[in-house]
């Protein structure tokens, strides 16, 4: 009996337990480590492909190293979100110089846009492409409306229909803009738009604003014809040209009838 207990407590048993522990640990590491390596490799490959696209399409203005060039600003540190917004909305590559880069048909598909964004992101830290949970709505509509009226309505109109700015520029209509691009615009401040970083508007605030605009887009106009939600200008134009015009015609008709 004593010899059996001694064999059970043999030092080799401890070595075997340690060996089994190392095997299990190594197996777990081998199971998870390749995924991280693949992700890093995929990101590197995307950045390399984006670099080729950049040299072929963007380097003329932004420089071979994206540090700025003939008419194009430096892209170092602007982040992936800026590229996704500018390229994804067709504003870049810029067809010709102008007062303001307008939205157009994207020249790159989503994969190529992601590759360009990965390359620019590799040049320096900047705003990343937002998660879909922040751009798909579901926020506080009432709070979003209040934040929009305080921070955005002076340029984009009370209902996001856009408006004129100085020197021939304009704030675009937001009704056909995706939540993702709205979020990226707030993060990066394209052209005349200010940057709303997380110190100005938290990610939840941005989500609330996007939710408000999505609700404006979807809801019906309780007052009838909205006239594009452009405010008093089209309403005044309608009143003067149609309303007063009709009154003048009726007055003339009554005058002729009386004569």
TrEMBL record:
TM segment ranges: 12-32, 237-255
Source organism superkingdom: Bacteria
Protein localization: Cell membrane
SUPFAM superfamilies assigned to the protein according to its UniProt record, in alphabetical order: Cytochrome c
Name of the top EC class for this enzyme: translocase
UniProt key word Translocase: yes
Reaction catalysed by this enzyme: a quinol + 2 Fe(III)-[cytochrome c](out) = a quinone + 2 Fe(II)-[cytochrome c](out) + 2 H(+)(out)
Documented EC number(s): 7.1.1.8
Entry-linked InterPro entries: bc1_cytC-su, Cyt_c-like_dom, Cyt_c-like_dom_sf, Cytochrome_c_Oxidase_Subunit
Main localization, broad class: membrane
Subunit structure: The cytochrome bc1 complex is composed of a cytochrome b (QcrB), the Rieske iron-sulfur protein (QcrA) and a diheme cytochrome c (QcrC) subunit.
Protein name according to UniProt: Cytochrome bc1 complex cytochrome c subunit
Origin species: Flexivirga alba
């Amino acid at each position: 009996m004593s010899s059996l207990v001694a064999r059970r407590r043999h030092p080799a048993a401890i070595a075997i337990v340690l060996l089994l522990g190392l095997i299990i640990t190594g197996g777990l590491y081998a199971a998870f480590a390749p995924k991280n390596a693949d992700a890093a490799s995929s990101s590197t490959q995307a950045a390399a492909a984006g670099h080729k696209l950049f040299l072929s399409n963007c380097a003329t203005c932004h420089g071979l190293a994206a540090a700025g060039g003939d008419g194009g600003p430096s892209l170092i540190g602007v982040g992936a979100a800026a590229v996704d917004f500018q390229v994804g909305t067709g504003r870049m590559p810029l067809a010709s110089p102008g007062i303001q880069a307008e939205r157009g048909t994207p020249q790159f598909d989503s994969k190529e846009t992601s590759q360009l964004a990965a390359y620019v992101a590799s040049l320096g830290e900047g705003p990343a492409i937002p998660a879909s949970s922040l751009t798909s709505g579901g926020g506080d509509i009432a709070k979003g409306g209040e934040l929009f009226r305080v921070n955005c309505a002076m340029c984009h109109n009370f209902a996001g229909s856009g408006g004129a700015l100085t020197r021939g520029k304009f704030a675009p209509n937001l009704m056909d803009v995706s939540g993702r691009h709205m979020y990226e615009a707030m993060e990066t401040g394209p052209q005349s738009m200010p940057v709303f970083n997380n110190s100005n508007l938290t990610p939840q605030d941005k989500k609330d604003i996007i939710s408000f605009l999505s609700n404006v887009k979807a809801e019906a106009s309780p007052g009838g014809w909205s006239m594009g939600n452009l405010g008093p200008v089209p309403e005044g134009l309608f009143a003067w040209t149609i309303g007063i015009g009709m009154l003048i015609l009726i007055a003339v008709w009554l005058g002729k009838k009386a004569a």
